[in-house]
Amino acid sequence: MSTKILVINGPNLNMLGIRQPEIYGRASYQDLLDMISKEADRLGVEVSFFQSNHEGDLVDAIQQAYFDKIDGIIINPAAYTHTSVALLDAVKAVQIPTVEVHISDPDTREDFRHVSYIRAACTGTIRGHGLEGYLEALRLLASA
Ligand code: DQA
Predict the structure, then answer these.
(1) Is 129 annotated as catalytic?
(2) pLDDT tens digits for 79-108?
(3) What is the model's pLDDT at position 90?
């Protein structure tokens, strides 16, 4: 049975390519999914995707990962990184190895982006590596 990885993206990441391209680049959300799928094929892992602009839906997706026997989660909680105890608690609840990814480096941006609630429950954090950060997270989880 192959390793099952779920990639979760939070609010406004569906707007990649349109949204602040000077920070997030010109590739679209679909381009991101295509890049990850290609790398997953190369690594021989099974990948699925979820994106939502709603905090509760993201909590539901993390809980569902437990029932779907997902082996690893890659999550970019976007703005909820800096506000959501609910996402932290969800990752703690399911105890699935989870890597936090940020396209930009929030630590070098506004002060309010310096806090990550979810980080305490994650096995790793990759930030500031652009879309490539998702591929690095995939490689980390595939080799775990
Ligand atoms: C982000 C950084 C967050 O601060 C921001 O709210 C996002 C995207 C990133 O990928 O760099 O929406 O998570």
Answers:
(1) no
(2) 999 999 999 999 999 999 999 999 999 999
(3) 98
Region 105-131: mean pLDDT is: 98
User: Which pTM value belongs to this model?
Assistant: 0.98
β-pair type (4-9, 124-127) = unpaired
Q: Is the CB of 84 under 6 A from ligand 1?
A: no
Section 62-71 average pLDDT: 98
Range of the domain at 91: 4-142
The verdict on whether 117 is a catalytic residue reads no
User: 139 CA to middle of ligand 1, Å?
Assistant: 21
d(CA 103, ligand 1 centre) in Å: 7
Q: What does 64-133 look like in DSSP terms, one character per residue?
A: HHHHTT-SEEEEE-GGGGGT-HHHHHHHHHHT--EEEEESS-GGGS-GGGS--SGGGG-SEEEESSTTHH
Q: How many domains does the chain fold into? A: 1
Q: What is the CATH number of the domain that holds 77?
A: 3.40.50.9100
* Residue 133 in contact with ligand 1 by CB distance below 6 A: no
Task: Evaluate: CB of 27 within 6 angstroms of ligand 1.
Answer: no
Q: Is the CB of 113 under 6 A from ligand 1?
A: yes
Q: How confident is the model at residue 144 (pLDDT cuts 50, 70, 90)?
A: confident
